[in-house]
Amino acid sequence: MTMSIAGALPTAPQLLCAFQGRRFQDRVLLRSAHALAELHERRAEIGDSMLVAEIDCRRIELVDDINDWVEQELPQHRSGALLHTESLGAVVDRMARSWVEANQVIDHDGAGSDNTHKHWYHLAELVDGYTDLVIDVAGGRRRLPEQ
Description:
This protein has a two-stranded parallel sheet with strand order 1-2. Helices cover 67% and strands 3% of the residues. It is globular and about 50 Å long. The chain is mainly alpha-helical and 147 residues long. It has five helices and two strands, in the order αααβααβ. The mean pLDDT is 89. The protein has helices at 12-20, 28-45, 49-73, 88-109, 114-138; strands spanning 82-83, 142-143.
């Protein structure tokens, strides 16, 4: 797999591979993405609100880790660049949640169900949005919010 056009940022397919547990060993952002997917899987399986709160705290830490890494590794174009509404860490967290939900629905409802189609379509929209964001950040047309 190739690097994204933003250099240090992974492509959407690389993120999806990281969610699955493949090809993330030496990349900070991809390790965090994998950990987010694992947390979303655990969160969906438990009913204890205290454990859910602990998982959510860890997710916040991982989102912050991603945002800190982005702030250190990516130059931000300030002049003329539109501000994106959420951080890259938040975007990756939403993609991880959507990936987990789509996989759970396909396991539960089967590949041909309308519910499965809805969840996979939503994930595809997030993938497209992530790709557009990476292209816009690399091109200086969009900037990410500061922490």
